[in-house]
Amino acid sequence: MLLRAIAIVLSLLLGPLALAETEPPTPTKTPEKPVERPALGERSQAETAALERQLAANEQQQIKTQANETFLALWRPGNSAPAKGAVILVPGEDESADWPIGIGPLRRKLPDTGWSSLSLTLPDAESKQPPEGTDTSAPSDATPSIETAVPEQPNEASAEPQETPAEATSDPAEKAQESNTSPADGDTSNEAQPDYATRVLARIAEGISFAQQQGATTVVLAGQGTGAYWAARYLAEQQPPFVNNLLMIAPQAPADLDPGFDTVLSKLELATGDFYYRDQLAERNAAKQRLDAAKRQKRTAYIQIAMNSLPGNRDVEQEQLFRRIKGWLSLHLQSSPATQ
């Protein structure tokens, strides 16, 4: 009995030591390095990929600039022999080459009037470049959804446009608002890339060159929103002798860019159609400012066309815009020297 008791006591004393010797040491954890995600492309690149999946291949044109930057343009030849010319559509900021308001409907409808259409893709504005690690995956649909939950507006029958030439009398009660303030910084996050303005103007130049290669002897630049600024700026700086017509759809000045919109327009002496929505206060004031400037400069080929926006009926609104553009092309088009 004594020996048995001694054995039990020894086992109790030596047991923890044996377990300590046999238990493997816990490895020291090393801190994990954060996974470095490569910088993602521009939002416009995601939209381009979506358009390439959804649109017919014969509409898609991959055009390369002299800086070896390739962009998507959507081409539709005019349905007449020969075509009357080409309208090059320049979308605004955050708009794609098939934007459902203005750009898309016009590019599809103009060919039935005998005009070829070429819609450009512009690079993202510098302030909209995605930071590294940002998800810019494209949505399943190429065309963004448009909110239409807005009270019904009068239909087209009660919203006849008003054409205002530069020499017409304007309302002195309306005060224009200054839209341009300071010059923009031309640097981009990618040092190997040209600045934003250079990239945009290069794409417009290549779009014009492509249209001419397709046989267009008359080329019209049509810009929407901030795209109107870039179209006007290209014409003011380059003054191509074969582009004598400019269409501006609800034009807007990009923020903090030099030269300002007024300065750009003051350098133009060509046929200009300025389409704006008169029920939008900001647009009406800006249009008044542009009209007054055109009068001071005696630009008699500058014509304003006022329309009513119809957010409750987008189809009617887009048809209204198309008809006004079609009418301007029929009544106010200035022929290029090659076709005179």
Automatic annotation (TrEMBL):
Biased composition (Polar residues): 134-146, 178-192
A Pfam family assignment: DUF3530
InterPro entries, A to Z: AB_hydrolase_fold, DUF3530
Positions of the UniProt region annotated as Disordered: 20-51, 117-192
Biased composition (Basic and acidic residues): 30-40
Stretch forming the signal peptide: 1-20
Transmembrane segments: none
Coiled coil: 277-304
UniProt entry keywords in alphabetical sequence: Coiled coil, Signal
Protein name: DUF3530 domain-containing protein
The organism of origin for this protein: Pseudomonas segetis
Source lineage: Bacteria, Pseudomonadati, Pseudomonadota, Gammaproteobacteria, Pseudomonadales
